Write a sequence for this structure.
């Protein structure tokens, strides 16, 4: 499924980093132009920030509502400055932050939890007005079993962790996931 070259991945990561830096310097976003057709395709995308291996921000669009490059700009700003779980990123810490991008496929409903594959599938759990999303890399990073993954997906949706036993909608998606550390090595801070 990986449709991006390493050079294209680096370009997307640079876009995210430059967007955060531009916002820190100027207090607003900058949307550069691109002639790469792949970057103009509408894609679901999440931008995750990690500092010393710990999550520092993560925001995204689960559905393909904007062109990839614009979705990365939007979500880089949101992950750095608007994730309610964390204070806004400060200029002095940007060099210590590793940026990770997850480009998503369109979610599809599955019949049961056994249709979910750990490490391959991200999940969206929903019931009524409740909805929660976990990226495919999360259960692997956390060492969760399939039932734990679904349990925490329910909790992320604001439901009881066992709500899946009495009926929720489960959607899965896959993602192309890449980070600065993956492409350039630990501790680079910049590409």
């Amino acid at each position: 499924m990986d449709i991006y070259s390493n050079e294209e991945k680096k370009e997307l990561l640079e876009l995210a980093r430059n967007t955060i830096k531009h916002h820190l310097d100027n207090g607003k976003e900058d949307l550069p132009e691109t002639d790469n057709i792949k970057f103009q395709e509408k894609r679901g995308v999440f931008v995750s920030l990690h500092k010393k291996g710990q999550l520092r921000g993560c925001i995204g669009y689960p559905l393909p509502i904007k062109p990839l490059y614009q979705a990365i700009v939007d979500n880089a700003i949101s992950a750095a400055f608007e994730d309610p779980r964390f204070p806004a990123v400060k200029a002095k810490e940007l060099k210590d932050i590793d940026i990770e991008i997850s480009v998503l496929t369109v979610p599809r409903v599955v019949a049961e939890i056994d249709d979910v594959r750990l490490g391959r599938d991200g999940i969206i759990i929903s019931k009524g007005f409740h909805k929660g999303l976990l990226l495919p890399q999360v259960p692997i990073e956390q060492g969760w079993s399939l039932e734990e993954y679904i349990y925490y997906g329910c909790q992320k949706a604001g439901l009881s962790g066992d709500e899946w036993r009495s009926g929720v909608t489960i959607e899965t998606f896959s993602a192309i996931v890449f980070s600065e550390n993956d492409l350039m090595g630990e501790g680079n801070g910049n590409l």
The chain has a mean pLDDT of 89. The two ends are 24 Å apart (CA to CA).
